[in-house]
Specification:
heterodimer; A: Rossmann fold; 9-stranded mixed sheet; two-stranded antiparallel ribbon; 6 helices; 26% helix; globular; B: alpha/beta; Rossmann fold; 9 helices; 28% strand; binds flavin-adenine dinucleotide; binds adenosine monophosphate
């Protein structure tokens, strides 16, 4: 089986962001970057499938400037077989522009399975997977939390509002990965050494014109400081009074 | 003419509140851009057409009804093809979707089919010349972006609960159409549907959410949360990742960075510490109440009203008080 996983380098979210001097990007000074969690789960799913299906190969693809090679090496050190960087100076916000560039590359690969994360936390878009599937005219299941592949057919679980669906799909197919599918392995020392020798191809990305552009970034208004109403169940009447009179919610 | 399209989400043959929000948003866009009409698509099983008049009351001039017995559940392929074909053939200024599990699946497919840009999780919108300018949270809500969409139609998916469905009655016309692909011909087949534990109200549309964390100590204690939710009558139940990881609740109930993003009128956090990843999913709630025994828990930094105390002491008392308050109405 040939499996591709599209992976994105994203900043650690556990910080207070600052807006860059250009007003349209986040100041990257001091930020730590790593593979998007959803994408790490997608890589893990691909590795598990490869190990069950001898002769399989896992390719990871990341679009971005040279720093994404670190992210690709991370996936290679987890165990992926080869990497492709689609090189561009800046990752656009426009999800369709990213999907088009990825689809251009993906359509030449002869992949049986193409995996994406459900969403990247920086763009908070959640669109590139299903967009790529449409551009490639492949069957697509989004936000899966279980996966099995056998005899050229896949079965996955997907969460919808108030329900879970078990779906069946033919290969080749595109899937986007939700939390709960697996726990991503950490690179072993041996994996890190091996990754250095694995092929990482650099190609220039074909990014079409962007139709969706960030004009301005701002920090959200801080929530007004709240108050402690009281301690224990004795505080309940006062809370209910506040919900009725101030918040007008009861 | 600047007509605007709205995709009205349904569950079976029932309208969802987010569907009415999409119609309301489309009405606002049509009015802001001149004298355009709102065309709302209702796609689902037979029986939906009886809901057309209700869509008209929220401002749709045309209600497009596409019924098919094979559409008891959301079908991504049928919905994407039908919406995209209709949008293409009529030519709209904008098309409005919802940022729900369904909408997150559908809107990008439609955008790719039409070759146009899309912004999801939209908090607000304006028309500025040839662009529709929207606000969208980035970096798990820690940064707010103002984004210009220059393509026509401009595709936006609204965050649930940021627009209230607003009556704006029209003498609407009903058009019927066939789904543009046969539901039996889709490539991805649903072989089983399992009902979630969330009850009737979904997290995306509930005006009140009662969410529980590890402070509840065990799965069976979640009944405290469920009872408080049922005392409100209009509340859904949510959870932290600690809770879904332990299997006390399904992953679909998880609120936060890797779970659902919600913004109800009232969010009650029960035994939740308030980790950044959890706050990412609920900090835009209008009013936040927290009950936690640790007065230094970070949840109190975002809570409008906090009670420092043991959930096993406070929540039953609160449930009783809410029941009483509801009775007096
Ligand atoms: C990449 C990543 C993504 C994540 N995504 C999410 C996400 O989407 N959603 C999410 O929720 N988390 C997410 N997390 C996990 C998050 O960091 C926290 O671990 C989690 O939110 C903690 O859940 P909790 O508040 O239930 O548990 P805890 O942090 O253990 O807090 C329990 C709280 O209950 C209080 N308590 C204990 N006993 C009582 C009592 N008897 N009465 C009253 N209070 C009591 C304690 O004081 C404590 O504050 C993510 C983490 C990572 C690294
Ligand atoms: N620059 C990129 N390079 C490779 N994959 C990407 C890139 N951007 C997004 N993706 C993929 O698309 C998914 C969804 O991203 P997004 O639509 O930005 O939320 C991610 O989890 C990745 O799998």
């Amino acid at each position: 089986m040939k499996i591709a996983v599209c992976i994105k380098r994203v900043p650690d979210m556990d910080v207070r962001f600052r807006i860059g001097a250009d007003n349209v990007s986040v100041d990257e000074a001091g930020l730590k970057f790593d593979i998007n969690d959803f994408d790490a789960w997608a890589v893990e799913a691909a590795l598990q499938l490869r190990d069950k299906n001898p002769g399989s190969e896992v390719t990871v693809i990341s679009l971005g400037p040279d720093v994404v090679q670190e992210t690709i090496r991370k996936a290679l050190s987890m165990g992926a077989d080869r990497g492709i960087q689609l090189k561009t100076d800046k990752v656009p916000f426009d999800g369709l522009a990213i999907a088009k560039a990825l689809a251009e590359e993906l359509k030449t690969g002869g992949y049986d399975l193409i995996l994406f994360g459900k969403m990247s936390p920086d763009s908070s878009n959640g669109v590139v997977g299903p967009m790529s599937a449409e551009l490639l005219d492949l069957p697509c299941v989004t936000a899966i939390s279980s996966l099995e592949i056998a005899n050229g057919k896949g079965t996955a679980k997907r969460e919808l509002e108030g329900a879970q669906e078990i779906v069946e799909f033919p290969l080749p197919a595109v899937l986007t990965v939700d939390e709960g599918l697996n726990t991503a392995r950490l690179p072993s020392l041996k994996g890190i050494m091996a990754a250095k020798k694995k092929p990482l191809e650099v190609k220039s990305a074909q990014i079409p014109q962007q139709q969706v552009k960030v004009r301005k970034l701002e920090l959200p208004a801080e929530r007004k400081a709240g108050r402690i109403v009281g301690e224990g169940s004795a505080a309940v009447p006062e809370l209910v009074r506040l919900l009725q009179t101030e918040a007008k919610l009861l | 003419m600047a007509h605007v399209f709205a995709f009205v989400e349904t569950r079976g043959a029932d309208l969802r509140k987010v569907g009415l929000e999409a119609v309301t948003a489309a009405r606002m866009l049509a009015d802001k851009s001149g004298s355009g009409e709102v065309h709302a698509l209702l796609l689902g099983p037979p029986g939906l057409s009886s809901k057309a008049a209700q869509i008209g009351q929220y401002g749709a001039d045309v209600v497009i009804v596409a019924e098919h017995a094979g559409l008891a559940n959301y079908s991504p392929e049928v919905a994407a093809a039908t919406a995209a074909d209709r949008i293409k053939s009529t030519g709209y200024r904008a098309a409005v979707f919802s940022t729900t599990a369904q909408g997150r699946d559908l809107a990008p497919r439609v955008a790719a089919r039409l070759g146009v840009g899309l912004v999801t999780d939209v908090l607000s919108f304006e028309i500025e010349g040839d662009s529709i300018v929207v606000r969208h949270p980035m970096n798990i809500g820690k940064v707010i972006a103002t984004i210009a969409i220059t393509n026509t139609p401009a595709l936006i998916a609204m965050r649930p609960n940021v627009i209230s469905p607003t009556l704006n009655s029209r003498a609407s016309r009903v058009e019927t159409m066939q789904p543009t692909i046969d539901p039996a011909s889709v490539r991805v087949k649903v072989i089983e549907t399992r009902k979630g534990s969330g009850g009737k109200l979904d997290l995306a549309e509930a005006p009140v959410i009662v969410a529980g964390g590890r402070g509840l100590k065990a799965a069976e204690n979640f009944k405290l949360v469920e009872e408080l939710a049922s005392a409100f009558g209009n509340a859904a139940v949510g959870a932290t990742r600690a809770v879904t990881d332990d299997g006390w609740r399904p992953h679909s109930d998880q609120i936060g960075q890797t779970g659902r993003l919600v913004s109800p009128e009232l969010y009650i956090a029960v035994g939740i510490s308030g980790a950044v990843q959890h706050l990412a999913g609920m900090r835009t709630s209008k009013t936040i109440v927290a009950v936690n025994k640790d007065k230094d828990a970070p949840i109190f930094k975002v809570a409008d009203y906090g009670i420092v105390g043991d959930v096993f002491d406070v929540i039953p008392a609160l449930t009783e008080a809410v029941r009483e308050a509801k009775k007096q109405h």
